[in-house]
Amino acid sequence: MTGFASCPGIVIITLITSLISIPVKAEIWTNEISDVQYGRIGSNVTLLCSASRNGSAVEWRLNGTRVASSFAVLQNGNLILTNSDSTMEGNYSCHDKKGQLLRATALRLGYGPALLRIHCIAANYYSICCSWEQNVKTFLPTEYISTFRHASKASETCHQDFFRTNVCTIKNPKNWHSSYVVNITEVNPLGSTFTLSRIQFLDIVKPDPPERVSAEAVHGSPRRLRMYWEYPATWPKESSFPLRFQVQYKPMESRSWSVVEATHLTTELTDVLAGHFHIIQVRAMDLLGNGNWSEWSTEIKALPWLEPTPKPEESESSTQSHTENTDHSSTSESKVESEEQYEKLALLVSLGSLGGVFLALLAFFTILIWVRHKGKEETSKQELTSMMKMKSLPM
Questions:
Q1: Domain limits of the chain?
Q2: How far is Cα 316 from Cα 328, in angstroms, rounded to an integer?
Q3: Going by DSSP bridges, is the β-strand pair 179-188/143-150 parallel, antiparallel, or unpaired?
Q4: 34-53 in b/e burial notation, b at 16+ Cβ within 10 A?
Q5: Is pTM, for the whole model, over 0.85?
Q6: How many beta carbons lie within 10 A of that of residue 319, not counting itself?
């Protein structure tokens, strides 16, 4: 019974012993990587194997798969990657004949630092904000060191944003009329490079766009709009540096902008298109003309005052009044037309009467002439008869 009871312990010990005796083929996992190696794209990269000194044969794997000999050369157990490119990145592992892991290396490929593009702007007279971009994407972990100096002063630190590694701020510039030299140094595992940029403070002043832009219709004026806005929050209104403004506006259907200037926080547009929605924007600039105009504010839409339409009761009464006026005017017009017709008829009757009298006189004279002519013919006939009788008498 005692020997049987001890069987479970014997079985466990036997299993552990058998597991230890089995060779283990280790795979590359993130927590097994003992080294990170960086290389320049396009160059030859050599990966070392820790057990290659005795000249024993080893096997290299990339992400668990045996490395092809087409792009790699084995030399004394070390792996040489020729003309490396981004496809060769990954987790490399070196194994002995039994497949045991000898060394693990994470290879990261990229480029060394190059000159940067630096852009500085001043949203007010109390700070300068500089940002930069890479001309060459390095694909490697990168850090930046930013400093500045003006005139012959010593270099000072440009305060970098913790969340944006490519931005720094020069706080409270001491001399607005002098130039500043900004120095940004880029550092990565393949080296470092610095870039210098000279700026003239008054040339880079550029306010942020005005805020809370609004517009309202002007009662009784269908071609006017009244505008309001506020200073940008980054430009203190109580400072000694006032701003001037430009307002651009156009009907929504148009492509052409109209522009007016203002020095206060309100203005009135006097030539808008009646009955049409308008798009309006505002921008700002230092009153003395230093620096540049801000970007345009966000577009707003506004409609000028429209004449109110009459209520239904007013419409009916006005319609009835209009009908009565129309009837009255129609009656007057009918009377006028009747009088004109009577006058025309009287004129025609008069003309007809005159024509009748003229025809009667013409007939009378015609008959009179005919009677006289007839009387003469009878007299002539009688005289001719008398003469014929006298000739016929005997002598």
A1: 20-110, 116-203, 211-302
A2: 18
A3: antiparallel
A4: eeeebbbbeeebebebeebe
A5: no
A6: 11
Q: Are 252 and 277 in contact (CB under 8 A)?
A: yes
Return d(Cα 273, Cα 206) in angstroms, integer.
Answer: 32
> CA nearest 196: which of 160, 156, 146, 133?
146
The DSSP element (H or E) to which 234 belongs, if any, is none
Burial annotation 349-367 (CB, 10 A radius, 16+ → b, else e):
eeeeeeeeeeeeeeeeeee
When the candidates are 3.20.20.20, 2.60.40.10, 3.30.1780.10, 3.30.2130.10, the CATH number that belongs to 116-203 is 2.60.40.10
Could you please state the CATH topology (level 3) that the domain comprising 211-302 is classified under: Immunoglobulin-like (2.60.40)
Give me the count of residues in the chain. Answer: 395
Q: Which CATH architecture has domain 20-110?
A: Sandwich (2.60)
User: Is the model's pLDDT at 275 over the cut of 60?
Assistant: yes
Write the pLDDT tens digit of every residue in 329-363: 455 455 545 566 656 666 776 777 777 777 888 88
- Mean pLDDT, range 184-213, rounded to an integer: 95
- pLDDT for residue 67 is more than 60: yes
The predicted structure's pLDDT at residue 170: 93
116-203 and 20-110 share a CATH fold: yes
pLDDT, residue 174, reads 78
* SS3 state of residue 121: strand
**Rounded-to-integer distance, Cα 78 and Cα 32, Å:** 19
Q: Over the chain, what is the mean pLDDT?
A: 81
